[in-house]
Amino acid sequence: MASPLVHVVARPSDAPQRDQLGEGAFWDQATGALYWVDIVGKRAMRLDPLSGAMQVWPTPSPCSAIIPTARGDAIVALADGLHRLNFETGAIQHFCSPDPDVRNRSNDCRTDARGRIWLGTMWNNIGENGEGVALGGATGTISCVEADGSSTRMLTDMSITNSIAFSPDGRTFYCTDTRKHLIWAFACDPDGPTLSNQRVFSEVTEGGPDGSSVDVEGGLWTAQWGAGKVVRRTPDGRTDREIVVPAHQPSSCCFGGPDLKTLYITSARQDLAALEPSSLDGALFAVDLDTAGLPMTRFAG
Fold this sequence. Notes:
By secondary structure, the chain is mainly beta. Helix content is 0%, strand content 49%. The protein is built from no helices and 25 strands. The strands form six sheets. Strands 1-22-21-20-19 form a five-stranded mixed sheet, with no helix packed on it. The chain has a four-stranded antiparallel sheet with strand order 2-25-24-23, with no helix packed on it. The protein has a four-stranded antiparallel sheet with strand order 3-4-5-6, with no helix packed on it.
């Protein structure tokens, strides 16, 4: 039976700008605010969907994530690692560099239920002026960062780290190397943390798997770059729902809203030629669903 298609409703009035490379959607339930970044545009953003108020913080290098913290500031994932961002002044201070390889930059970044950051890195494919640079080797890594800034290397030899997510019980860890078009699942022991029993969760045949989010039923929702859709897969890897996005390159997604039933989706204009003025590529999208997502956790540090 064909998967039901749910058409995303774009809300350009919420965030009227277009991002070169929107990424890292994060919903802060405590404040009812959506955070995301423009990696190439070197900026981190916060949107209050109720009032439409938006704040923008420029960053000195490509920024792949912004995550609010327990102490009231934020962590931003810049090219060389994690930094603290002061919301009031915009000041940025280095916090830690889990991956010191100077060839790499930060990419996908999520917290687990304990408030640890899982940071993925990849070969830096962004030039000084935001231009694309050819990818080199599989030098990327995934590290788990504790509240004090110490870190544990979890995975190595990754080309493009993405789809970092956890099952509702925290015992399954998901990720992908986008170049391989496979989403993997691992057994996860949060007490370590340790990963084991790597398996192929799903093969992605349309576009490349990018950022993901998990709902309360354990469904994994994945933005599929180049395919213009977000796909839900059940815990056993079956596709049972697709959201059509009116943009070529959806890049990340997260559940938000008062009941966590609004799926926010970022997208990108990067590397798309001759876009029409009315193009929605690079816009922020939202769609109301009947399934709630898992709450996202602030960084514990």
